[in-house]
Specification:
heterodimer; A: Cytochrome-c3 Hydrogenase, chain B; three-stranded antiparallel beta sheet; B: alpha/beta
């Protein structure tokens, strides 16, 4: 096991092992804390308990097969993982995606952001003792998962976004279902805010807790709501737009306090912005149109064509036996996942299997700043800080 | 991809070249992404320049990762993805490392965030980072043998599954 030298080496301090089975570490994370009384002197995270070698497994699959593996990294945002991987492979191929498919992608990913923030809010609140918020958040998340089930047949491991477009035509009645969620959510978010924002216990537990300066946050490569709560409006959707995000009208919420409360406020505001984007995307998605790029040999042909045209059948056979071979080269794409900048680096050597797939996992990199947030704070604040950087251990360990 | 992005890339490349002509080895343009291949001994200085120079301002090291091109030599390729938040620009620095001496200067003095990124590469590829303050394995246990993301490491691993007896013994074929 890893041994850690204590910072002071004095008999006054004690070493406390937090995790890996601690409920508020949101997975299997172990932190070795050196405490002076109740104050944290040193913190060393120990991870890898969920390491499944996803990047290695991707090298042994064809480009299309690897999509299912990406679902299992950040299991609160599988659509975001699908998207970043597909965008990277599409960039490698130089593939253009039909607008309609791009809007469907945007809508799904933004719904995913809301559902992911709901899990974050619920679990963060329950960590700090607010039980009911957790139940309310999961009630609403259920409604969003039902939409995913309608679209993809799966609630969580959707694999809905595919190379060249999306897997299936939107199902009958999807507009009503999405509309219902859009109408329901604003008042529900207000409800969470009445329970938390001016709650004195909530304020006492989060205000001024876990401060990090904007300079430190950038130097430690932090991204996402944590960075925006420190005052930097860095959002990939605005800085490096993908999937036609430049056609959408939305704001990037920021705060300047850079404490747990500011991060909470940023995420709540982000949920409201996401609702705006979903509404716009819904209006942009036409009733008819292509959901997949016209790219024989890369995108599987329609079933009807496969049954009637010989060439389509040949392509179908080739895609599912051999796969396709992008030109040698590398592509790196970043998107704004609920947790921050999610990147995918794909390198091809011209064979049907990727030479290297790497994910820039925002949870992993944001977690690096945890010692900076908690040193000098009290032990209960450690729990608030872990919650506030919103880690998913499946993504940290990959 | 667009003309403006390749223009801004040219500006960055020319700027770095004007600072130190040796720092810019090879410039690769692919799918709208600019890669500058930097000689190994100049990596830290070039990275520091990218961060500090008022015309470049690459203040965020977003990712650092390795590609193993085994059996080609030099087999390892370290890729550093930089982002300039003030100028909303991206750049990739690349260093090629041989299989016999896979080591390069750590970028922790330039971006403290390089710490875990480099630990991950050390863990999974066995690339060593000179001057790294805490170069330990991060995802795998300390006593793990080998570096799984190397191309000559089998996907199923070298070892039998522990404590399962003959049940999951790897075939010796």
């Amino acid at each position: 096991m890893t041994t850690v030298e204590t910072a002071t080496g004095s008999a006054k301090t004690m070493v406390l092992n937090m995790g890996p089975q601690h409920p508020s570490t949101h997975g299997v994370l172990r932190i070795m804390l050196e405490l002076d009384g109740e104050t944290v002197v040193k913190a060393v995270p120990d991870l890898g308990y969920l390491h499944t070698g996803i990047e290695k497994s991707c090298e042994d699959k064809t480009y299309s097969q690897a999509i299912t593996l990406t679902d299992r990294m950040d299991y609160l945002s599988p659509l975001g993982n699908n998207l970043v991987y597909c965008l990277a492979v599409e960039k490698l191929l130089g593939l253009e995606i039909p607008k309609r498919a791009q809007y469907i992608r945007v809508m799904m990913v933004e719904l995913q952001r809301i559902s992911s923030h709901l899990v974050w809010l619920g679990t963060h609140a329950i960590d700090l003792g607010a039980m009911s918020v957790f139940l309310y958040c999961f009630r609403e998340r259920e409604e969003i998962l039902k939409i995913f089930e309608m679209f993809a047949g799966q609630r969580m491991m959707t694999s809905y976004i595919r190379i060249g477009g999306v897997a299936l035509e939107p199902p009958a009645g999807w507009r009503q279902a999405v509309d219902r969620v859009l109408k329901m959510m604003p008042s529900r978010i207000d409800e969470y805010e009445t329970l938390l924002t001016e709650n004195r216990i909530w304020m006492a537990r989060t205000k001024g807790v876990g401060y990090i300066s904007p300079e430190d946050a950038v130097a430690l490569s932090m991204t996402g709501p944590t960075l925006r709560a420190a005052g930097l409006a860095y959002d990939n959707r605005k800085f490096f737009p993908y999937s036609s995000y430049d056609e959408f009208d939305f704001n990037v919420p920021t705060r300047t306090e850079s404490d747990c409360f500011a991060r909470y406020m940023v995420r709540v505001a982000e949920m409201r912005e996401s609702l705006k984007i979903v509404r716009q995307a819904m209006d942009k998605i036409a009733n008819e149109g292509a959901i997949k790029a016209e790219a024989p040999g890369i995108v599987p042909p329609q079933r009807e064509k496969m049954k009637t045209e010989m060439e389509a059948l040949i392509y179908h056979f080739k895609i599912f036996t051999e796969g396709f071979s992008p030109a040698p080269g590398e592509a790196f794409v970043t998107i704004e996942s609920p947790r921050g900048e999610l990147g995918c680096f794909v390198a091809s050597d011209g064979s049907p299997k990727p030479l290297r797939v790497h994910f820039r996992a925002p949870s992993y990199i944001n977690l690096q700043a945890l010692p900076k947030l908690i040193v000098g704070q009290l032990l209960p604040d450690v729990i608030a800080c872990i919650g506030t950087i919103d880690i998913v251990l499946g993504e940290v360990d990959r | 991809m667009t003309d403006s992005s390749s223009q801004s890339a040219n500006v960055v490349v020319e700027h770095l070249r004007a600072w130190n002509s040796k720092a810019v080895g090879e410039v690769i343009q692919f799918r709208g992404e600019t890669t500058i291949v930097v000689p190994r001994e100049l990596l830290r200085a070039t990275a520091a320049r990218c961060r500090e120079d008022a015309a470049l301002q690459f203040n965020l090291l977003t990712d650092a990762t390795c590609v193993d091109r085994y059996p080609v030599e030099p087999r390892f390729e370290m890729n550093y993805h930089l982002v300039s938040i003030p100028r909303s620009d991206k750049l990739r620095l690349r260093v090629r490392l041989s299989g016999s001496d896979p080591s390069v200067d750590s970028l922790i003095p330039v971006w403290p965030g390089a710490n875990w990124l480099e630990r991950e590469v050390f863990d999974l590829f066995g690339v060593r980072f000179n001057g790294h303050t805490d170069l330990r394995r991060i995802l795998l246990p300390d006593d793990w043998e080998g570096h799984p993301l190397r191309r000559d490491y089998p996907v199923e691993g070298y070892r039998d599954v522990p404590s399962t007896g003959a049940l999951f013994r790897k075939s010796t074929l």
